[in-house]
Amino acid sequence: MTGQDSVLARMLDAAHELPPWLVPQFARTHAESLGASTATVYLQDYDQVHLLALTDEAKAGSDATALKIDDSDAGRAFMNLSPVVADAGDGTSRLFVPLLDGIARVGVLEIVTSQPAQACDWTAFAAVIAELIITKGSHSDVYFTARRRRPMGLAAEMQWHLLPPLTVSTPRVTIAGCLEPAYEVGGDAFDYAINHGVAHLAIFDAMGHGIDASVMATVAVGAYRHARRGGVPLDEMYTTVSRAFADEFGEDRFVTAHLATLDLETGGLVLVNAGHPAPLHIRGRKVLRTVDGPPALPLGLGDDVPAVVQAELEPGDRLLLYSDGVIDASRGEQRYDEELFQNDVEQVLADDVPLAEVIRRLNRRLMTWRGGQTRDDATLMLVEWQSPDLPGIRP
Predict the structure, then answer these.
(1) What is each CA distance from 78 to 38, 43, 75, 209, 265, in whole angstroms?
(2) How far is 24 from 28, CA to CA, in rounded Å?
(3) What's the distance, Cα to Cα, between the start and end of the chain in Å?
(4) Domains of the chain by range and CATH?
(5) pLDDT of residue 180
(6) What is the reported pTM?
(7) Using an 8 Å Cβ cutoff, are 78 and 99 in contact?
(8) 36 vs 48: CA distance, rounded Å
(9) pLDDT in tens, 182-233
(10) Strand order through the sheet with 167-169
C-alpha cells in the first residue's frame, strides 16, 4: 500500500461519524498530510454560474472568494470533468480537481502545493471528499444552504427536493437535466429511472406558478413514480397518472408532460407527448429532426389511451426534451422560437463538451437571451444512448 493509499484508507476509517459541516476541514487536514500547503472545497451554486468556496465549517465564503465557472481555472476543471494545473507564480502550483459523484458534478477541490502537482495523485483523494459531501449532506442542511447565493422561494425549495440528481451515467445511457429559474422555479420538474434494460424519462409543467403549481407537480411526479414502479406500461401510465391527478385536483387543473421509455438494448424510443414541444433527435452536432406525433391531452384532462410516438436511436444519438417555458420568451418584438432554439443547441454542441456541460451552457445561452429573466419555468433534459452492450463486471 502506498503512502497515499494508506492516507485514503485512514480517511475512510475516520469519516464514519464525521459531522457533515467538518468535511472541508477534514479535506484540508488530510491534504496537508499528503504534502499540500492547503486545500479548499468549492461547490456549484444552484444556477450553475459560480463555484462557492466553503469555510472550514462548510459555510459559503464571501462573494470575493466565489469563482465564475465560465472564467476560472476551477471552472474549466468543473466544465470538462478533468483536473487543471495553474502556476501561482510564487513557487506553488494550484491544482483544481473536479468533485464528482459518478459523472455528476458536485464542485471542485483546489490543492495548493509547492511540490509537482500531479493530477493523478489527487483524483482519488477528491473522489473520497465528493462521496463524503454527497452521503453526509443527505442528512444535513449545510450544503443546501452553502450553495445559495440568494434566498430561495418556498416553491423552488419543494421542487429541488423533488428532483433526482441532475446527472447520471451508466455504460448504456447518460442523462442530464436542469430547471430555471433556479431560485424561483415552481411548476416544472423532471424525473428518470434506469431499470435493467429500460430508461424511463419524464418532464412535467404544472399550470400556474408558485406553491399551487409546485404541489401539482409533486402529485404528478409521485403518481408517475408510483405507476412506473408498479410496472405499468407507458400508454397505461399516462391514463393512470392523469386519473390520479384529476381525482386530486378536479378537471380544471392540469400538467403538461412528456412520458417516454428508451430501450437500452435497441435504442427504441416510445413517447407520449401530453402538451409539450416535440423533442429534438440529435445526431453528432446537428439536430436531425423533431420527434413529432399525435399529441395527447395534458395530464388531468384526458383518460383515453393515448397515441404513442416511436423513434429509433443509433449509438451516440441524443434526445432533448424540454418544456414550453424554454421557447416562451420574447425580447421586444422578437420571440424566442424553435428555430432560434435549435440554432443555440447546435452552437453548444459544437463545443464538444460533456453532456451535463451541454445542458449548462445551453441554459446559460437561454438566460442570456432573456436578459437574465424568465416569465415561465423552463426544463431541459438531454439523454444520450451510448451503446447496446452492457460490459461485464471485472475484479
Answers:
(1) 20, 10, 5, 32, 31
(2) 6
(3) 18
(4) 3-146 (3.30.450.40), 154-385 (3.60.40.10)
(5) 86
(6) 0.92
(7) no
(8) 28
(9) 888 878 999 999 999 999 999 999 998 889 999 999 999 999 999 999 999 9
(10) 167-169, 173-180, 378-385, 318-322, 280-283, 286-290
